[in-house]
Amino acid sequence: MDWKRMPISDETLQSLRLIPNVQVSEGAPLARCTRFGLGGPADALVETDRPESFVRALALARASGTRHTVLGGGTNVVAADEGFRGIVLRFTASALCADGNRVTAEAGAELQQVVDFSIAHGLGGLETLAGIPGSLGAAVYGNAGAYGRSIAEAVELVTFFDGECVRRFSAQECEFRYRESVFKRRKDWIIFSAELTLAPGDAAELRRRADEIVAVRNAKFPPAMRCAGSVFKNVLAADLAPALAESVPAGVVREGKIPAAYFLEHAGAKGSVRGGIRVADYHANLIYNDGSGTARELLELIAQLKLRVRERFGLELEEEVQYVGFDGSPSPHLSHGN
Fold first, then answer.
1. 246 belongs to the catalytic site
2. Counting C-beta atoms within 10 Å of the first and last residue's C-beta, which end of the chain has fewer, N or C?
3. Residue closest to 50 by CA, chosen among 83, 81, 92, 109
4. d(CA 92, CA 48)
5. 106 with 193: CB under 8 angstroms?
6. 216: part of which helix (H) or strand (E)?
7. Which residue among 56, 85, 90, 179 is the active-site one?
8. Does the active-site annotation cover 297?
9. What is the pLDDT of residues 118-168, one digit of tens each?
10. Cα separation of 203 and 130, whole Å?
């Protein structure tokens, strides 16, 4: 589909451009903003690294009546092939600051930068998150974690905009759960920064551990691969029907969770293909774009895999990825014949 600007008035565009420290790009391809490398153009992409400018831009977008959304680092985002008909806003501030055992990180900082920064200051608690792609804001939003730890364990305070004013929440108020937070449920709340409380540690040992984890992660998820890491959330063993839980070998359960890859592999997911979208032949929960894929093909393959697992186990897998630019439900219905 050829890009054609929808009715964002010239007055709205001009007003956005007049906000200090704001960059406005018309027809910007969202594929450049997502790790899958998928997505058509946004009518207008509005970016700033200043909280006050972001607040003004968001208020203007709302007042204009123009359809709008907020995009973070784009790691776990599937953007529609048609793009986004409206305004896409991005908060890009990425400053890092250390004070004793506390690190303050702005939402646009890459999570790996935050890990490296904390290690350089001899602070531990984030090293197991090494190699996880995406921004600090996205990590807090989705309570990112690995190797038995999650970012929620380090969060002290989160500063965010609730649409009316800038607020601060304690970790408890963030309502963190496995891959969840209050921000994931309140998508109109925009994270600006987080204060993390860490523990003193030996920088050399922390560096060794982080590098070891990155090496393992890169072997599974090569940095150049157009993917979001794991597409589906792991499954909490306590949430399974007793009979299904008992059928899972004890060695598969890790810290009360069963890898989604276990169910996907037994449902024959490895090596599945839908156009230019593929499931790795060595990891059933790794879906990637070979460079020729489309968002529609990705959604169709996700739906197909969910159907296979549902038919095999009676289990509904849940995606970690979020959807932008789709009208209604993004996942197409697949019949048994697909």
1. no
2. N
3. 92
4. 6
5. yes
6. helix 203-220
7. 179
8. no
9. 999 999 999 999 999 889 999 999 999 988 899 999 999 999 999 999 999
10. 14
Placement of tokens 């009715």 in the chain = 7
Render pLDDT for 242-257 as a digit per residue (tens, 0 to 9). 999 999 999 999 889 9
State the pTM of this model.
Answer: 0.87
CB count in 10 Å sphere of residue 205: 13
Is residue 121 within 8 Å of 103, Cβ to Cβ? yes
The verdict on whether 85 is a catalytic residue reads no
Distances (CA, A) of 199 to 29, 100, 118, 121, 131: 41, 10, 10, 10, 20
From 230, 297, 300, 319, active-site residue: 230
Do 70 and 45 meet the contact criterion of CB atoms below 8 Å apart?
no
Among 195, 297, 300, 320, the active-site one is: 320
**Whether pLDDT at 327 is above 80:** no
* pLDDT tens digits along 43-83: 999 999 999 999 999 999 999 999 999 998 888 899 999 99
CATH number of the domain at 96-205, out of 3.40.1440.10, 3.30.465.10, 3.30.700.20, 3.30.530.20?
3.30.465.10
The number of beta carbons lying within 10 Å of the beta carbon of residue 111 is 25
Residue 70 has which token pair?
Answer: 């907020």
CB of 119 closer than 8 Å to CB of 40: no
In this structure, are residues 188 and 217 in contact, taking their beta carbons and an 8 Å threshold?
no
Amino acid present at 137: G
Contact by Cβ (8 Å): 57, 18 = no
Q: Are 86 and 8 in contact (CB under 8 A)?
A: yes
Give the Cα separation of 319 and 233 in Å (integer): 6
Neighbour count for residue 94 (Cβ, 10 Å)? 17
CATH number of 10-91: 3.30.43.10, 3.30.420.10, 3.40.50.720, 3.40.1010.20? 3.30.43.10
